[in-house]
């Protein structure tokens, strides 16, 4: 049992770190109605990582990270500018287009690579079981900086999403800072857990919390609790069933949310 604990402790710690920041951003995403923005940004970051990989750089190296971050920041700029299109085109349409195009571009990029299929699988579900303590601590540091910035500027970011009398005047600039911080988080997340886990960590706990309460602080708490329970169950299930961890955690989150909705309907 001790060996199992030592093997699983760092993957679970990584999930705790991921849940901590993604649930917060999930509240904004749900309220703004841009549900698939993280999936799209994650895919943009993955495209940058793919190009670095094809140029011969390791997936865990700094060059790959900079490629991913650069691509993600370009995506953040696109989403910032399209939010001000005065309703002529729904932003979800732009988000979907970006996701489809970057996904296709990644497939084309690795189509002649012997390791192409394995690389695409890595980008989708990651390899969280092999995460190292150094990677977890480094990622936690990045998230802490982004989180601290949002805490200090909460008087700007909260009204920007949830409205209110203190809605910032320079919307475009603060909107870009929101998406830029989001891009930094997503870039770090994709390296650890892949595109699909990034999506469920962001959306599923926030949807669960939104079904329970409208209070922002309580949504954070409920979302964190859901994320921690879902991560623990998913990791343990993948270990005992000998299934891919990322895919198992994604399915566990979906199953828990479905179970909650069904119980809620029965009540």
SSE layout and pairing:
Layout: H1 2-32, H2 37-54, H3 62-82, H4 91-109, H5 116-125, H6 133-152, H7 154-162, H8 171-212, H9 216-241, H10 245-266
Helix pairs in contact: 1-6, 1-8, 1-9, 2-3, 2-4, 2-8, 3-8, 5-8, 6-8, 8-9, 8-10, 9-10
SS-derived structural category: mainly alpha
Q: Distance between the terminal alpha carbons, to the nearest Å?
A: 39 Å
**Number of E-state strands:** 0
* Broad CATH class: Mainly Alpha
Largest sheet: none
Q: If you had to describe this structure to a student in words, what would you say it looks like?
A:
α1 packs across α8 (171-212), α2 (37-54) packs parallel to α4 and α2 (37-54) crosses α8. Helices cover 82% and strands 0% of the residues. The longest helix is centred in the C-terminal third of the chain and has 42 residues, at 171-212. It has ten helices and no strands. The chain has helices spanning 2-32, 37-54, 62-82, 91-109, 116-125, 133-152, 154-162, 171-212, 216-241, 245-266. The protein is mainly α and 267 residues long. The chain has a single domain, classed as ABC transporter involved in vitamin B12 uptake, BtuC (Orthogonal Bundle), CATH 1.10.3470.
């Amino acid at each position: 049992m001790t060996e199992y604990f030592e093997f699983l402790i760092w993957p679970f710690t990584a999930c705790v770190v991921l849940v901590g920041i993604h649930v917060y951003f999930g509240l904004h995403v749900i309220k703004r109605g841009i549900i698939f923005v993280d999936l799209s940004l994650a895919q943009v970051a993955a495209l940058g990582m793919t190009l670095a990989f094809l140029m011969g750089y390791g997936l865990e190296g700094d060059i790959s990270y900079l490629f991913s971050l650069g691509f993600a920041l370009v995506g953040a700029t696109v989403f910032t500018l399209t939010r001000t299109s005065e309703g002529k085109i729904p932003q979800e349409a732009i988000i979907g287009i970006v996701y489809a195009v970057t996904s296709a571009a990644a497939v084309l990029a690795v189509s002649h690579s012997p390791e192409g299929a394995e690389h695409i699988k890595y980008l989708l579900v990651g390899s969280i079981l092999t995460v190292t303590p150094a990677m977890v601590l480094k990622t936690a540091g990045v998230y802490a900086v982004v989180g601290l910035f949002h805490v200090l500027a909460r008087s700007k970011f909260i009204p920007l999403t949830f409205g209110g009398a203190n809605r910032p005047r320079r919307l475009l600039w603060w909107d870009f800072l929101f998406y830029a911080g989001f891009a930094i988080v997503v870039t770090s997340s994709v390296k650890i857990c892949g595109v699909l886990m990034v999506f469920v960590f962001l959306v599923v706990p926030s949807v669960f919390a939104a079904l329970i309460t409208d209070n922002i602080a309580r949504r954070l708490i409920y979302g964190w609790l859901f994320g921690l329970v879902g991560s623990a169950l998913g990791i343990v299930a993948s270990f005992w069933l000998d299934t891919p961890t990322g895919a198992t955690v994604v399915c566990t989150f979906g199953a828990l949310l479905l179970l909650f909705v069904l119980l809620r309907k029965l009540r």
